[in-house]
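Rather than argue in generalities, we have chosen a single entry, letters for residues, whole numbers for local backbone shapes, without further comment.
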Amino acid sequence: MTKITNEEKKLQVYSIDKKPTIPKTVKFDTPLENLNLNWGEKDLPERIRTKHVHRLHPYLGKYIPQLVEIFLRKYFKPGQTVLDPFCGSGTTLVQANELGINSIGYDISAFNVLLSRAKTSKYDTNNVNKEVIDILNKVQNITQKNAKQLSLFEFDFNTTNTQKEIDNQYLKEWFAPQALYELITYRDLIESEGYEYKDLLKIILSRSARSARLTTHYDLDFPKKPQNEPYHCYKHSRICTPVQEAFKFINRYSHDTIKRIEEFQKIRTEATVIIEHTDSRETKIPKIHGVVTSPPYVGLIDYHQQHIYAYHLLGLEDRKQIEIGPAANGTSQKAKRKYQEDIATVFSRIAKSMINGGKIIVVANDKSNLYPDIANMIGLKTEAVVQRHVNRRTGRRSGAFFESVFIWKKN
């Protein structure tokens, strides 16, 4: 890892003397020096940052859609194809579609692929409404009649069609009996009732499961152990009790999902969206015009672990052993070198399939200064590095930090 050189410093762009940039005003000829990406809460409120399907499901480590929109508007045209080799929650794919830009997304996480597909699919909103309400009503009819009695004793899996869950210790430890009964009932109905929009229903189920776990209200990101007793809640400043049911979340998120899907379908274009569950270090990459992505950070987040409840509940394939830069590997010099090699492998393969003059836009909190070396490793020219101050994080993980937007060009 090297220090920033004087030459690299000359490439840095950081604007604070201009008003925060409004994404829709950016054009192909907008100078980078005119971009002020340091939005405050008043400039870019939470409801705008999480518009329509961007809040279909919680996801740590994603970048905001407005940032993506700006660089798509500046470097891509409708009909061109942008790739995100680490598509995560699908932010690049959603924003590209809004602008009529074709997109391709790869991810090694089965959950990320499921979420991205649910967000970007083309829907008949009337049928979405019918299916979401139909399964909601069925779950209510099956699980709510004797909910109070059921919550008082251990749920007997032998009396249901969920025999295969008996040995799933995670589900039995992290969910109260009634909550698990409701979640498994919903899951089984997804398959047995022949619904068309299964991926969307699975996202409603996963979002509900995340909220229904036996954990404290203030620690939904990475709870370390099940919370079975009342506790002092930092979020609500009072004594709270662990959640015992899931149906209230299923009900709430069902209606929220319908609303968000309807909002996005009104602006969704016919631009193609291709999403594959694959490893970007190995998969075949078609001809593309460029890349907009935010790679996984080294030693910060285990992307499979943050949605572990979904993997257990939905039986998703777990590929955590081959994640790039997982938190479990730490941030040692060895881990950083391995991370650079893996990221360089991805971008080197991409560069071969990208048109001459194509741009790779990489958004990263590069506090270890890893990305200048990566650009050199793959022989791409760094045109600029736009810095932005991120200061809107909330909750127990609040705090400001700087984020870099690397702009690389294939000559």
